[in-house]
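Task 17 of the worksheet. Students: predict the tertiary structure of the chain below and write it out as structure tokens. Keep your answer in the requested format; marks are given for formatting as well as content.
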Amino acid sequence: MSRPAQILLSAVRKMSHKTRIAVCQINAKADKEENFNICKSLIEEAANAKAQMVFLPEACDYIAESKEETLKLSEPLNGTLIGQYQTLAKKLGIWLSLGGFHERTENDKMHVAHVIFNSKGEIVSVYRKAHLFAFGALDESKYIVPGSKVEEPVETPVGKLGLLICYDLRFPEISLQLLSKGAEILTFPSAFTAATGQSHWESLLRARAIETQSYVVAAAQTGCHGGNRNSYGHAMVVDPWGAVVAQCSEGTGLALAQIDLESLKSIRTRMPVVEHRRPDLYPTDLRGPVHSPANEEIFTFGQVKVLGASVVAKTALTIAFTNKKCVVPGHMLLAPIRVAERLNDLTPVEIADLFQLARKIQHVMEKIHGASSSTLAVQDGPEAGRTIKHVHVHVMPRKKDDFKWNDEVYRELAKHDKPEDTGRWRTEEEMADEAKSIRLVFRECGFFDS
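Model answer:
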């Protein structure tokens, strides 16, 4: 959406702070045409009821009974089904949240994509599900590629939407991050299982609303989809005070709710929770535990591979590993697990995690090598001397007079893996042996969580 369009939309919202939305509940099967016709009918009903935006659940395109069928039915974003929704949004002049579309990728997997259409039928944002559900027989990671980005909140006629999907509901950090980016409404289109929904669905939705002082809109799948797949239903809207203000009854249908941004603003002003947070005491940290990987694991490092035996420590986002050719003794490397060429390609959380682990590695390597200083360097791009197409951090423990001139370390770093460097490349066995000894000290320092 262009900047002038965003400004105009904000102006329209300020003139009328109360808007109407519709949250939908369906029972999707493997028949994509039938599912679309059901959703189309609900959208038309919502438009007749003067809703300005309609929210559809996760997997509103289809729910298949096997992994193979799920993959077969998937489409790219420029496919037929997305085109049908674009046409419908434009025809009715209504905004749509397609809460979970099976987006085909180039391999044999897919993304679950939350797609937002404006009233002209244009796609204004796409969020790809970050947290993948695994409970009982249902393991999404077997055929779904997790998203790697938290999208900026979307300016819409009903407020600034923070886009999420289903299992993301269980991770409050991502909701708080969207709040910090200006979200007023958090969306959780879902296909919550009947077993987990009965115990957790409403409690989690109300908790996210209360802790972020935001509206929460949760479209939902309901009933049996075939086989052993059953969804809980209870699509609902929760206000910033934590009250359920709209909820679907059993079966297919919709519920209408009023979004009052003045009320939201008043709640945030009267109880300024955001201002009362203490990030100095509990900084947001999404990295998860630090541990040592199994020796048989293999990691991609640009155009080469790193064996698990050479990795000293691993988080969910970063690995730290021994170097094949060292500028100084104890020269270590750290890289994000997700392949990214430049530092700017990383998310803020990935960058924070990378340097949090680098700080621990620096401490351990200084202890091992009797150093009291270190050089940390990032060769960010080929013109900076980097040959591996994967951003990484060099951690080099330093001692007095280890070079004749202190800055000579950078000249050595620039040539250490080039043809003019005649130094010996270390074997995988040597790198693994060093990693093993470093892990012992890493553990002694209390840096491993498991």
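Marker's comment: Residues 348-369 form the longest helix (22 residues). The first strand starts at residue 18 and ends at 26.
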